[in-house]
């Protein structure tokens, strides 16, 4: 096996990326305190062509050197906006017809392996603070909670790693519909 060259990876330009079809997913960050986590999440959102990211509360917004360090420019390609609270963001998204899911360990959660993504629906996922997780009021406002099954002793993942797993899960059903590289909208 030979590693692919940058040319063989067929990277799209920022202009092409802006026009291409997106995964119908909005990622909401509820008081994520690490700028490097924010940057990593933006970079992953770029990789999976996520519709947009909503930064809430104390979550840092670009431009910031620590965000850029891990985003590597994705803060410029991925649409993002700021909302004062995640609760406000969830309410707006629900009004816009999104099914909003908190990514949290709660009684009655749905294991991610059992959550079937309908490619015809619009989703939003809420990821929480590195210590406290998603605020309980935000959990209560969501349609459901999705939990990533784990077996280790820690029972938690870094928020950027969680975001990557979740975005991949929502990206997969849409991958089949754009197997040849999503066409422009």
The radius of gyration computed from the alpha-carbon positions, rounded to a whole number of angstroms, is 16 Å
SSE arrangement, N to C: HEHEHHEHEEEHEH
Beta-strand segment tally:
7
The assembly state of the depicted protein chains is single chain
**Strand order within the widest sheet?**
3-2-1-6-4-7-5
Q: How many helix segments? A: 7
Extract low-pLDDT stretches: 179-185
Give the overall pLDDT as a whole number. Answer: 94
As a percent range, the share of helical residues equals: 25-40%
Secondary structure blueprint with pairings:
Blueprint: H1 14-19, E1 23-30, H2 35-47, E2 50-56, H3 65-71, H4 74-77, E3 80-83, H5 86-95, E4 99-103, E5 110-111, E6 123-127, H6 136-141, E7 144-147, H7 159-175
Parallel strand pairs: 1-2, 1-6, 2-3, 4-6, 4-7, 5-7
């Amino acid at each position: 096996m030979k590693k692919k060259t940058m040319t063989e990876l067929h990277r799209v330009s920022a202009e092409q990326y802006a026009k291409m079809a997106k995964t119908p997913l909005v990622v909401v960050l509820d008081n994520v305190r690490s700028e490097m986590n924010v940057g990593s999440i933006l970079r992953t959102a770029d990789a999976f062509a996520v519709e947009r990211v909503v930064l809430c509360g104390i979550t840092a917004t670009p431009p910031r050197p620590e965000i850029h360090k891990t985003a590597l420019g994705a803060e410029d390609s991925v649409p993002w906006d700021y909302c004062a609270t995640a609760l406000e963001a969830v309410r707006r998204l629900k009004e816009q017809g999104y099914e909003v899911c908190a990514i949290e360990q709660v009684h009655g959660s749905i294991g991610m392996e059992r959550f079937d993504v309908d490619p015809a629906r619009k989703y939003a996922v809420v990821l929480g603070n590195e210590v406290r997780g998603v605020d309980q009021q935000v959990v209560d406002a969501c349609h459901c909670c999705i939990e990533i099954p784990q077996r280790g002793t820690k029972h938690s993942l870094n928020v950027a790693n969680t975001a990557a797993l979740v975005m991949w899960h929502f990206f997969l059903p849409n991958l089949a519909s754009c197997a040849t590289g999503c066409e422009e909208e």
